[in-house]
């Protein structure tokens, strides 16, 4: 029998997979109708969410987790987002889990450094 991962375990796996560029693992963690809202955009459904993660993944260098707090089906991860185009961005990520899948994600950080970095690249 397969044990369902806790919200905390799902968040740990999510961030490890994203940092490693393992989008098949990420796909398995997200509900088909996952809803994402963040500082750089929104995504409805697993394909849009993966596209957003891939996009930022192109410049992602490291995710430095500072703390993760979980209570039931909710988990918040506080981390520094290290990219090749901007200084580290302190970031908060909230996830809601239902039936062993991430159904909602909200992310907040100051996007100015990343936006300026993307502008310099273009």
TrEMBL record:
Gene3D superfamilies hit by this protein: 3.10.450.50
Domain SnoaL-like: 12-105
Coiled coil ranges: none
Pfam families, alphabetized: SnoaL_2
Protein name: Nuclear transport factor 2 family protein
Species of provenance: Streptomyces lavendulocolor
